[in-house]
Amino acid sequence: MRKLVLLSRKGGTGKTTLSVNLAVAGLADGLSVAIADLDIQGSARSWADSRGAETPIVAAANGGSLFPFANAHERAGRELLIMDTPAGDSQASAAAIRLADFAVLVCRPSYFDLAALVPSAHAVRAAGKPGLIVINQAPSRRGGVEAAAIARAVKAARELGFPIASVGLRARVAFQESLWRGQGVMEFEPRGAAAAEIDRLWQDVSHGLWPGRVQQRASGE
Ligand SMILES: Nc1ncnc2c1ncn2[C@@H]1O[C@H](COP(=O)(O)OP(=O)(O)O)[C@@H](O)[C@H]1O
Ligand SMILES: [Mg+2]
Asked: Would you report the helix, strand and coil content of the chain in percent, each value rounded to 5?
C-alpha cells in the first residue's frame, strides 16, 4: 500500500477537494483506495456521505490512530491510502508526513498561501519525503493573458525546492458542483477541463507513488 499526504497549513486551498478527486482517479485505475480524514471538520467524510458508495472507503483518523489505521488497511489489501490533513500545525499532519511515501503540497496563487506552504515544505523535506507542489484555484486567462499571480506563485513555489505539478488547476465550477453529489470531477464531467486536469495531476502523483510503474490507463487507451 502506498501512502499519499495532502498538505498546506492554510485552510481552503483544496486539500480535501484534491484528496477525493485523486481517490476517484485511483479507483478509475482499478486501485483499492482509502481516505484517512484527519480533519475534525470531516469534509472528506461528508463527501463520502453524499456519495453513498462503498468506494473509496473514507474514515476519520487522528495523529494517534493513523498508524494502526494504515496498518489495518494495508492488511485488508488496500493499495492506496490518501491522508487528508487539517489546516494548521497539527500532530495529525506530522504523523501523516512520517507515514507518507509522497506529499502533495497544495496552494492557491496567493501570497498568504505561498507563505503558509513554507513550513509544510520544510516538514516534508526534513522527513526526507518526495513530493510536488500544485497550484490550485488559479484564475482563468483573461483575453488570453495569464494572471501575473500565477507566474509569481510558480516562481515562489520553485524556491521551496519541490517540483511543480505538470498541471495547474483552475478555479472551476465542476470542482464545486461534483462535491454536492459525492463525485469526483472525472465522474461528474468526464470530458470536462477539470477532469483533464485531475487526470494529469494523477499521472504525476502516481508516478511519484510508484516510480517506474507503467501507467495502466495510458497504455490501455
Ligand atoms: N479548483 C477549484 N475550483 C473551484 N473551487 C475549488 C477548487 N478547489 C477547491 N475548491 C473549493 O474551495 C473550497 C475549499 O476547498 P477544500 O478542498 O475544502 O480546501 P481545504 O481542504 O484545503 O481546506 C471548497 O468550497 C472547494 O469546493
Ligand atoms: Mg479539508
From this structure: 45, 15, 35
Could you read off the pLDDT tens digit of each residue along the chain, which spans 221 residues? Answer: 999 999 999 999 999 999 999 999 999 999 999 999 999 999 999 999 999 999 999 999 999 999 999 999 999 999 999 999 999 999 999 999 999 999 999 999 999 999 999 999 999 999 999 999 999 999 999 999 989 999 999 999 999 999 999 999 999 999 999 999 999 999 999 999 999 999 999 999 999 999 987 665 544 44
Q: Is the CB of 12 under 6 A from ligand 1?
A: yes
Give residue 75 CA to ligand 1 midpoint distance, Å.
32
Q: Is 206 in the pocket of ligand 1 (CB under 6 A)?
A: no
Q: Which atom of ligand 1 is nearest to the CA of 171?
A: 3
Tell me the pTM: 0.96
Cα 156 to chain centroid, rounded: 20
- The pocket of ion ligand 2, defined by CB under 5 A, consists of 15-16, 43
| 2-211 fold | Rossmann fold (3.40.50)
Q: How far is the CA of 19 from the centre of ligand 2 (A)?
A: 9
Closest residue by Cα to residue 134 from 175, 96, 177, 183: 175
- Residue at grid coordinates 513530493: 131
